[in-house]
Design brief:
The structure is a homodimer of 335-residue chains.
Chain A (H helix, E strand, L loop, with lengths): L7 H11 L5 H9 L1 H12 L2 H4 L3 E5 L5 H8 L4 E6 L3 H11 L6 E5 L12 E6 L12 H11 E8 L2 E9 L2 H7 L12 H7 L4 E3 L11 E7 L10 E8 L4 E14 L6 E4 L11 E12 L4 E10 L7 E11 L2 E11 L1
Parallel strand pairs in A: 1-2, 1-4, 2-3, 4-5
Antiparallel strand pairs in A: 6-8, 6-10, 7-12, 9-13, 10-11, 10-12, 13-14, 14-15
């Protein structure tokens, strides 16, 4: 029973209310995600000329790691904002590392707190969620940008690109979806109908990707608006080999493009593991696809009307190939 | 950021309040724990003569799997109680499997609901938590037992035994505890002091166990009282080889001893994986122990005064061997 706490999908929709971020465990996972943390570190350490003497705002500072990167790179002052009680730990860490005078940590919501300064030169933030946008802090970063970022200021990172591809995933689909057809001899298909609507956040073996990758959403953090994060966009993917399609997967790449030399990292299936993994959307039917054949469709992404922390994703696709045609509208919900 | 939901230790202390059990994910994990579920299934299917015509109470019925096992074994009627909204799914599953007339599911707290019957012949429940007692439902089972179990009735399972042993675990201790000494060049030792107080629920390789196993707490579900679950007991473990000790581990075995032929399963490091894994308690110092030398101590276990869902565990141990002596009192908290 106590396994409750270990169930991500069951917990994320409400974690907001009881401040799971107050526990170091989640920060341990993020700190130990070296693709993530070292990309941020490099973008800051390798651009000391950009941070030297600057006022920096760290949105969602957590344990203060990015704030300390910035302070160590010569920032004049760093303001770190976090609503979680982890900020008490962060204050201790910041002072243990001799940055008490350089880094000011403020607990509260970006929308509510008042910084001691009118403007900041640089905003740094690790705001990304699963599927980039699920429970992300991007809205908060935009609030900080519009309220505090000086004209011509910079945001680290400043680019995000979302991708979709198709995968052969028969075995895992059997384990996660078809499992419910027969549970110790009982019919659990009512759960199956829930399971298929829920995108699965998991690591996908690059070898199971059978298509090219279609970028379907580019986000420029310097200019994007909250409204831009509700979108319906087309996609087209082409089979790279003869295979079956059991699911679509989505992932994102992150760019620090204003650096002296741009720094990127990917959360894609081919890239090194990150705690964001990939997001899998199982199709109701298996597609039999030949090399070169195309799957076309649209991805519709919007915060849920009733619970804006949930994400409604509709993947509408059609396929017409040598071995048959499929046309489906699939409703998914990340909650 | 959205990784929040995946942090067990950070979430468990509050999951109660937002009904994480309503999501099928946690039940999927428990159902797929075959050591767990097949042990229950066997204890019921292989004892049809005990269930035939009996009234059965399933405490914390979840998706209703144990209730259906009992109904299929000829129970006259099964009452399943669960406070979680998963019970709505369970009702659908029970009816999809044709047990609507045999199984009655009631949503609520055992302490508050009123069964349509005065007594039941058998109580079945999967109540065990990490370290057996962390966020376990045993208290609820005892309430059900005292209120509803007929004189001479049975409880499945009816026995639980807790064990302690010692492990060589240098590498993982470096990864989980000493990691905080240097996080990307920063001093995070303030987190280290939190981390070492927190028992780690994880899978321990049997090969790292360097001692014998000492049973320190036997629980007879038919007779145990709530008070018995707050205890201070001695233990003594003997090194099975020359090795170092970095941590104590605890686990438990479960017994269905009133079956025609007793059925047991273990959550120990030598046994097949279960979702309970083992619980690791890191020691402040590394012990250098020779084969045959003994570590003696006491384990003190009590619900936390302020939050009874948290578990305070004090391991007091002393060791005197050829390569030195250690005496420590270690406070741990599962929350």
């Amino acid at each position: 029973m106590a396994a409750a706490g270990t169930d991500a999908s069951g917990l994320t929709s409400k974690d907001y209310y009881f401040d799971s971020y107050a526990h170091f465990g989640i920060h341990e996972e993020m700190l130990k995600d070296e693709v993530r943390t070292i990309s941020y570190r490099d973008s800051i350490y390798k651009n000391k000329h950009m941070f030297e003497g600057k006022v920096v705002l760290d949105v969602g500072c957590g344990t203060g790691i990015l704030s300390m990167f910035a302070a160590k790179s010569g920032a004049k002052h760093v303001y770190g904002i976090d609503m979680s009680n982890i900020i008490h730990q962060a204050r201790k860490i910041v002072s243990d590392n001799g940055f008490a005078d350089k880094i000011t940590l403020i607990q509260g919501k970006m929308e509510e707190v008042q910084l001691p300064v009118d403007k900041v030169d640089i905003i740094i933030s690790e705001w990304m969620g699963y599927f980039l946008l699920y429970e992300s802090m991007l809205d908060t970063v935009l609030v900080a940008r519009d309220k505090y970022l000086v004209e011509g200021g910079m945001i680290f990172p400043d680019k995000a690109t979302m991708y979709i591809g198709a995968i052969e995933d028969g075995d895992y689909k059997d384990e996660k979806i078809n499992y419910w057809d027969n549970v110790y001899g009982f019919d659990y298909s009512s759960i199956k109908s829930l399971a298929i609507k829920e995108p699965l956040v998991d690591t996908v073996d690059g070898a199971s990707v059978m298509s090219d990758a279609c970028p379907f959403k580019e986000i420029d953090i310097l200019t994007v608006t909250k409204e831009d994060l509700t979108f319906k966009v087309p996609f087209e993917i082409t089979a790279a080999r003869d295979d079956y399609v059991h699911a679509f997967i989505c992932w994102f790449d992150i760019g620090f493009t204003k650096c002296h030399k741009p720094i990127y990292f990917s959360t894609g299936p081919g890239a090194k593991y990150t705690h964001w993994k990939q997001t899998v959307f199982y199709t109701p039917e298996t597609l039999t696809v030949n090399k070169g054949e195309k799957i076309r469709g649209t991805i519709d992404c919007a915060p849920n009307g009733r619970n804006p922390r949930d994400l409604d994703i509709i993947i509408d696709y059609s396929f017409s190939g040598e071995h048959g045609s499929e046309q489906h509208t699939c409703d998914f919900k990340m909650s």
